[in-house]
Amino acid sequence: MTHERNILVVAHARRDDTVEAAQRVFEALRVAGARAVVPPDDREELIEVLGELPDVLRLGIDVPVDAIELAIVLGGDGTILRAAELVRDGTAPVLGINMGHVGFLAEIERDDMDDAVRRVIDRDYTVEERLALQVRVKDSADSVIYETWALNEATVEKASRERMLEVVMEIDGRPLSTFGCDGVVVSTPTGSTAYNFSAGGPVIWPTVEAIAVVPLSAHALFAEPLVVGPEASIAIEVLERTNGTGILWCDGRRSHDLPPGARVVVRRSERPVRLARLHPAAFTDRLVRKFRLPVEGWRGPAAITGTITTRSATS
Description:
By secondary structure, the protein is α+β, with helices and mostly antiparallel strands. The strands form five sheets. The chain has a six-stranded parallel β-sheet with strand order 3-2-1-4-5-6, sandwiched between helices. Strands 9-8-19-16-11-12 form a six-stranded antiparallel β-sheet, with no helix packed on it. The protein has a six-stranded antiparallel β-sheet with strand order 15-14-13-10-17-18, with no helix packed on it. Helix 1 runs parallel beside helix 4 (113-121). The protein has two domains: 6-130, Rossmann fold, CATH 3.40.50; 133-268, Probable inorganic polyphosphate/atp-NAD kinase, domain 2 (Tumour Suppressor Smad4), CATH 2.60.200.30. It is built from six helices and 22 strands.
């Protein structure tokens, strides 16, 4: 009996370009003898556009998540985050093909899609593990009332625009500071170029294991961005005196209301997120390309007629 190869395809089914791309991926997988799998809701939407898809299977109905070999994602960062959520209970890596704008999590651009699918079929890729967050919400009796995870960030925010959130922040079981704010972002290195970056937090190279903590519009003398170790425990308590409620958002996809007295505890998850990589490009190059950073005038490493010379520390 041969081992079936199940490839999950996650695409934005309401966009013409991603639907067309999904159709090409389905055909390439079929020709290679692999089985295309999609989320059930996506399959129904794709059928509305493409007609019957007898060879395309449903995730969780026809194929369990732990039988998925790899997830091909056609879309932007939001679609990639959705795919990471879909395969969270399995071991499949996620390969992002950028069909959006910035697409910071994507591995390649749409023009290289056919080559990427060929390499998936040939198993010609490496897998990179990224730090993820475990997120728990506790009530005033210290009982866990909600638990989830995040690849990019967990954010505690005020629920009402007109009201400020009063919080106390704790690092490794010790109180750090109390302040009023719009919220607090707790980010992974992967998420450091997302909400964390927009909030003034540091960009963290993916090879650095660390967690960033960034208060949002805090009314405090000490409310600067922090970088803590990967094993640190960060807790944010919504103070009882808060005039209103807060809300927890994880990756902008999963939320939970935070009444006064709620405590959000964030630490490293035991299960990383696995990303498929096709090109070992430097993260610096990705920053320059995605953010369109100016690099005019860069001379690069000195090389004269093939001989590498060293420069002084002041050059």
